[in-house]
DNA sequence: AAGTGGTCTAGACCACATT
DNA sequence: ATGTGGTCTAGACCACTTC
């Protein structure tokens, strides 16, 4: 028991252990319950940056779960970049400044982290005959039609990106029904997108896009083409996002 | 024993099991040994796309390792997108077409996958006084100097990218000593880079870069700024990579 | 009903870091 | 020497898919 931590070992920590304990009634896996609760605790600032968490064995004993399970929960947070492990030394909170890591920080996530308020404005929503690209990438039959959605993405009122999505009409029969979140709508319709492939490349803004985005034609933009798949591995979403490079950049963390 | 697989269960599979068995002498963890060998086997085409692998229990018994260990090895390949699991059904090879997934496919990786032969040509290697950006991002002291390396990245003889790296002179005292791989050199010097943050954004090519890259000024390029960290979490590498957008694009897979 | 992946346990040993 | 993360085991039960 390190003396330095004594102020945390009394009733303070007792109530904290309780907050981390798994619910008897819940059916979700123990390690997921614990990993979520621990993530909340970290975000709530229970520990300082670079401060060591309780050891895996301590978690195990205090929470009444096996060490393997506790460790598996920590694996999840490690994967998210929330914590780091030092062999023989301990498990540590990743400093906030270095946290924009994880896989690929994107879209509204980054904006929210930077403190912006994201919003969006519909430019058009309707039904169209698919382009050649859409037919191929969405695997459409020859006469099928697509729902096409186009909108501006704003942060604090400034246009940051233009987004155009196409979906087979069979999956989105009424484009007008989509609220502010396409993904949320697909969830409620029973066709959630669970996986997506994103191609990221650079393009010069064409006059149309430039006008809508409020930049000069020819300016470099990031063009992200996303293909979204359902759990059945069917491609049902093709989205192009033109991002203003002066407001947008992507951060990715690589490890060896 | 499914009759359909009988042709794989005889001597064929016997020799295969041996190829997957861990080495008695090796000190590397069992699950890593197995995961590597299995990855090789998959790339060697032991199984077809969408074909089921042997079950976790089968691997466990045949290889003399516990199921937990076998499963942990499979976790690694799952993470890489090489396999997929279907609860109650089995573990399956990911079709090649969908494999450019993983985290973020980049640089020479993608080229090699597409069958190109990567190479590089030095444009300059020397010592310089750091820019303001370098001082800040590398945390240099006021009078420190940097080693600066600049090169063309080619694939099958065509320029695909321009890369400029800066490192504190203390970590790279002799820029001329670097061979074809900066990372390999740093490894041998005892300062391996284990983690890197990459910022990806779009820029218009300036005349200098355009000339070297063989494109028109103003063309959109991907600019990747990478900061590489050692195990001690010290930033020792700052690299800008300008990528020709007609040859380069990044692919990332997202999951929910 | 049988086979598969998904979760969980209790205990063990090793390698590394700190003291 | 002690504590920590890293690996490994043998066995168990559940949930899902397939037949």
TrEMBL record, chains A, B:
<dbReference type="InterPro" id="IPR050679">
    <property type="entry name" value="Bact_HTH_transcr_reg"/>
</dbReference>
<keyword id="KW-0804">Transcription</keyword>
<protein>
    <submittedName>
        <fullName>GntR family transcriptional regulator</fullName>
    </submittedName>
</protein>
<dbReference type="InterPro" id="IPR028978">
    <property type="entry name" value="Chorismate_lyase_/UTRA_dom_sf"/>
</dbReference>
<keyword id="KW-0805">Transcription regulation</keyword>
<dbReference type="InterPro" id="IPR036390">
    <property type="entry name" value="WH_DNA-bd_sf"/>
</dbReference>
<dbReference type="Pfam" id="PF07702">
    <property type="entry name" value="UTRA"/>
</dbReference>
<dbReference type="InterPro" id="IPR000524">
    <property type="entry name" value="Tscrpt_reg_HTH_GntR"/>
</dbReference>
<feature type="domain" description="HTH gntR-type">
    <location>
        <begin position="28"/>
        <end position="96"/>
    </location>
</feature>
<keyword id="KW-0238">DNA-binding</keyword>
<dbReference type="InterPro" id="IPR036388">
    <property type="entry name" value="WH-like_DNA-bd_sf"/>
</dbReference>
<dbReference type="InterPro" id="IPR011663">
    <property type="entry name" value="UTRA"/>
</dbReference>
<dbReference type="Pfam" id="PF00392">
    <property type="entry name" value="GntR"/>
</dbReference>
